[in-house]
Specification:
11 strands, 1 helix, five-stranded antiparallel beta sheet, Jelly Rolls, mainly beta, 54% strand
């Protein structure tokens, strides 16, 4: 007789792990010395093959629990296949108004995933690029360990 318990657990585990986010693209940068300088522009390039798909765009930051600010000001430059470029300033909230860190924190670091655009679509096929720069008042910003960009395919079409 075959025991159903272990097989059921294995199938349940496969189901749980297969239901995660469906990232079409993701790339991460570890910042040397946990400092983000003005010269450290982070570049992300991804291909869009279907203009009817809906996407969610995320940034994931890992920062020190000793980081001195509640937010992180950034510049995001988006380059489209046509050559057009869109530049935006974006404040990323790392702590709430009471001063408590958002995301999951350990003793030394916090990791936070921030949606920067949800239910987005792209009108152009081809390679899109996103360049991220820090825009704080100091050139060498201490306490930023890593930054990632993720493009999630929502499996929804417009």
């Amino acid at each position: 007789m075959i025991r159903k318990g272990p097989i059921t657990l294995i199938l349940l585990g496969i189901l749980v792990f297969s239901c995660g986010k469906n990232y079409q693209y993701q790339k991460s940068y570890d910042l040397e010395g946990e400092q983000w300088t003005y010269a450290d522009s982070l570049s992300f390039s991804f291909d869009i093959q279907d203009t009817t798909k809906i996407y969610n765009l995320y940034l994931q930051l890992e920062h020190s629990t000793d980081y001195d600010y509640q937010n992180l000001y950034t510049y995001i430059h988006t380059q489209f296949p046509s050559g057009d470029r869109l530049d935006e300033k974006l404040s990323l909230q790392l702590a709430n108004k009471a001063g408590y860190w958002e995301g999951k924190c350990g003793k030394k670091h916090c990791k936070l995933t921030i949606p920067i655009q949800e239910n987005a679509y792209f009108n152009q096929l081809g390679t899109h690029s996103l360049i991220l720069e820090q825009y704080m008042r100091m050139d060498s910003l201490p306490g930023i360990k890593s930054i990632a960009f993720m493009l999630e395919d929502t499996k929804v079409k417009r």
